[in-house]
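Protein in question quoted in full.
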Amino acid sequence: MTGFIAAAALLGLGAILFVAWPLLRVRTASEGSQRWSALVAAVLVAGAALALYPRLSHWSWSQAPAAAAAEAEGSNIQALLQATRLHPDDVPAWLELGRGYLRAGQWALARRSYRRADTLSAGRSAAALAGLGQTIMFENNGAENDAAIELFNRALKVDPHSPQALFYTAVALMHAGYLQDARNRFATLLSLGPPAAVSEAIAKQIAGLDADIAAANAAAKTSTDTAIHLNIELAPALQGRVPAGASLFVFVRSPQGGAPLAAKRLPATFPQRVELSAADSLIAGNSISKGQRVLVVARISTSGTPTAAAGDLSGQLSTLAGQSTQHQLLITGPVATPGSQK
């Protein structure tokens, strides 16, 4: 496309000279006006060409900048390839080639370039490791995977300030629920002084994480204040009466009745340590309060459903929520009636 534009420019110049040259050659008293006529003619010819060609041609001029950028990137890659041929052991040259292929969306070639840089650096190039991780991410449409995260973590061991490794591992930690660790990495990334728009986005992410961390800490405190610690055991006389695949349901109820304040479903294995708190509430607004007198029921369900049935085994105790005591809850016998412990 660049060659075509150059040829078109030369032809346009020829057309301008064809019109203007006779006027420029006139040597009369009106020479000044003739020169002005030549200038006007040149402007008209050039202006007409610029105005008409985009309308009459079939070339998509809106795509011209992208095409020019792609052509420039291709030329850049060729130059980088030549650099790696001339200096096959130059790690920075291979890194630049990998970045060029990444920008061009050529993942396999980017991976090959970064691997070469990684090999030459004996695994001590954070940029090569992070580049390999990025390539894997891009190949998977940006989805996280263990191989990429492992590469980013290796990159951080080499350089704790690798921007790519900090960003991608922060996102992975955030998705995994490690909010404080994610925040720390975003904060480190922000301290590196990225461009203003990037800094603003990172700052917003950190603010969001701070809010999530505060909410999680509040929930943890509430759980601690209302926790009931249990060690659930099966009476010796009932050993052998628990069928394979049975479920253990543990409920916390108000002595006045009503829906459970908290509940958990667990495999029916014994002895078993269990903790219930307000965090295990089934219904919003209906949970355990600190210091509340509650009834705790443990039931082995042979059917796997929370509704009591004939043949189920159960035990219960009364306690106050929020105590640090480890309570012993013994399952001692069958449920009295099928509907008695709903």
